[in-house]
Design a protein that fits this description.
0% strand; mainly alpha; elongated; 135 residues
């Protein structure tokens, strides 16, 4: 059985990881587009771009199927294990949750995630990744 304090720390870590994934997915697109114009070689790395497109397609697909992100589900499970209810949240949870979680109808998330996924897929053709790796 997991210690409740440890579960709370894990939940905070899961939330931080989730924010990192969001920053990666959202932040990489403008960097790819700018880097394609400016000639930055790293934005054409195949593994980086494949990870980016697969993550975004997965995220959009989750919304189409009415599913929450697995990171959200795992964080919530850990918070329940930690016995956290109500407003007893940590500093990390308080601020990162406000950055990450928004109140909106489900269709708004489906539309936003699908549109963003189409932009990420489009960037695959606008700034083509290289299959060969150069150091």
């Amino acid at each position: 059985m997991m210690n409740s304090q440890f579960a709370g720390w894990l939940a905070d870590g899961m939330l931080a990881l989730h924010v990192g994934v969001v920053l990666f997915v959202v932040g990489l697109l403008p960097l790819v587009l700018i880097g394609g114009v400016r000639g930055w070689a790293w934005v054409r790395r195949f593994g980086l771009r494949l990870t980016h497109v697969l993550l975004m397609v997965f995220i959009a697909g989750q919304t189409w199927f009415g599913q929450l992100c697995p990171l959200t589900v795992w964080e919530q499970d850990l918070r329940r294990i930690a016995g956290e209810v109500g407003y007893r949240e940590s500093f990390i949870e308080h601020w990162l949750s406000r950055l990450l979680y928004w109140e909106a109808p489900w269709w708004a998330f489906v539309t936003a995630y699908t549109g963003f996924a189409l932009l990420v897929v489009g960037a695959w053709w606008w700034v083509r990744p290289n299959r060969t790796h150069r150091v």
